[in-house]
Design goal:
- With 248 residues, the chain is an alpha/beta fold.
- Helix content is 35%, strand content 15%.
- The protein has helices at 21-30, 51-55, 88-91, 111-123, 142-152, 171-185, 207-214, 226-247; strands at residues 5-6, 35-41, 63-64, 67-76, 96-100, 129-131, 155-159, 189-192.
- α4 packs parallel to α5 (142-152) and α6 (171-185) crosses α7 (207-214).
Length: 248
């Protein structure tokens, strides 16, 4: 049984990645993926593309080399209010929205403050995934996070890059905690490569051993089924539509 999708990757548009959309799609096809998500860093990340890049994504085909493309953004959680760095009118144009804390942009506070920031981002019906919530430099209450994942239908990411980046503190221990809590509460997760180069697409060489160590069940890993992942995102879009109607 192999993964059918990897939905957190970057191209050279992000400023510190090195492949084109076409090259990334070709790599995804070679690895047998059905879906590739390309999620460029939003505008507060140094060196990344500006807002016009995201506005114009409509011109890019959503299938290349037999792989479905989902084009979106990795947003930065900026403050305790869970503010992200693209406006709603741009988010509405994106196929996929990941929200992440990056240490160069978010000033870490207490566990309570950091957890509130992430959960407030999760409450935003436009957010699909919380990226790499595993760094003890910004400590989080994982019990609360897993409950919020279930309540707000926002996936928690198991990020392969986190496990090979020495700047991220206690990533392995934190990921095991997340997995065990998700298993306990029957909450699905998404594994992503966070690839910044073509050869890294669909790479989970660091993440899968940790998943296996935690004894995490395959049925709670959405990467094994493109159909289940698409259904998950479709439900998010319905929730988003309902929230917009209720607020109007």
């Amino acid at each position: 049984m192999q993964f059918e999708l990897d939905v957190h990757t970057h191209t050279l548009a992000s400023g510190h990645a090195y492949g084109t959309i076409t090259e990334m799609a070709k790599a995804a096809a070679e690895r047998g993926l059905k879906i590739l998500g390309i999620t460029e860093h939003a505008h507060y990340m140094p060196g990344t593309c500006d807002d016009l890049y995201f506005v114009n994504l409509r011109v890019v085909p959503r299938e290349m080399h037999g792989v479905k493309l989902m084009l979106g953004a990795e947003l930065n959680i900026m403050d305790e209010n869970g503010t992200v760095d693209l406006p709603d009118w741009i988010l509405n144009r994106l196929d996929l929205r990941i929200a992440s804390i990056h240490g160069n942009l978010y000033k870490a506070g207490t566990i309570s403050q950091n957890t509130a920031a992430v959960i407030r981002a999760m409450k935003n019906p436009k957010i699909d995934i919380i990226g790499h919530p595993d760094d003890s430099n910004c400590p989080l209450d994982y019990e609360q996070l897993v409950h919020a994942s279930k309540e707000y239908h926002t996936l928690l990411e198991i990020n392969n890059n986190s496990l090979r980046m020495p700047s991220r503190k206690n990533a392995k221990e934190n990921i095991i905690t997340i997995l065990k809590l998700c298993m306990k509460h029957d909450v699905p997760v998404i594994l992503n490569s966070d690839a910044h180069f073509m050869t890294d697409v669909a790479n989970t060489d660091h993440a899968m051993p940790v998943v296996e160590q935690a004894g995490f069940p395959k049925e709670l890993i959405l990467n094994y089924s493109a159909e289940k992942f698409e259904a998950y995102i479709a439900e998010n879009r319905e929730r988003e539509k309902k929230a917009a109607q209720e607020s109007s």
